[in-house]
Amino acid sequence: MPAPALTPDTLLPRIAATRLAALASGALQPIHTEHTEIDEHGTRFAVRWLSTVEAKHTERERAAGHRRVDFNPFLPPDPALTVGALGAAHLAVLNKYPVIDRHLLIITRAFEAQHTPLGTSDLGALACVLGPHGGLGFYNGGEVAGASQRHKHLQWIPHTPGEAQLGTLAGCGALPFRHAWIALDGVDWDAPEQAGEGLRQALRSACAQLGMPDAADPMPPYNLLLDRQRLLLVPRRREHWEDISVNALGFAGSLFVRRPAQIDAIRRIGPLQLLAEVGFPR
Fold first, then answer.
1. C-alpha 257: how far from its chain's center?
2. Mind telling me the catalytic residues?
3. Domains located in the chain, CATH noted
4. Which residue intervals define the domain Ap4A phosphorylase 1/2 N-terminal in the entry (predicted)?
5. Which end of the chain has fewer beta carbons closer than 10 Å to its terminal beta carbon, N or C?
6. Per residue in 217-241, pLDDT tens?
7. Residue 70: what are its φ and ψ, rounded to 5°?
8. Strand 254-257 relative to strand 43-50: parallel, antiparallel, unpaired?
């Protein structure tokens, strides 16, 4: 059965209906976490870790067996998690293991590698969600940048008070890692194709600021984050600091650790310096 075409009016109701049905069937398995906040020079970072019950559950699943290395959960995606189509080339799919509610993946219908350049159609598909509904869009450009799947997928989370947002670092002053901010004032969010073009141009400008290629295959590892006001591009040199993995959400003020004991390590180094360690220090 073909995935229904999504419109600005049907997207959120489809997410809600798909979420409820997937929870009932067990296809959607939210990850329950606890969190604390670390304040660095007035900037608040949320640090999450698995709750005790969740950690035991995860260990049981890991012990139950492993999927083969070449398993691709997006080809095809689970119908129970598929929300609908975003244009001809992309599907909107719920993250099977969300930490944040209504976490959406925007995947290519056909296989494309995560390290290939983001094109106008990729960014236009994200604009179909971000334009009418706000929130935060982000992309982990390759394994070093925190990507967990090889199949190209952008991500979106709705705006929720206390959750990751791009404004966390926007007002932080001088950041200790190489990055580029681009204002998105000229993007026409009411027209996804034009928005895709505008976002592609903004990404091109950010790459130029950093001396990065914008159309290499493979692209060098990077994290991309955007809301309706601004775009942030951060080149990456490693996935981990010590044994703490960092993806794009780290640059929106949200870090994840496996064990509560790792929080003290983050406090010692400071969240901003941790980000500099996985990026390129200035």
1. 17
2. 153
3. 11-31+74-236 (3.30.428.70)
4. 4-159
5. N
6. 999 999 999 999 999 999 999 999 9
7. -90, 10
8. parallel
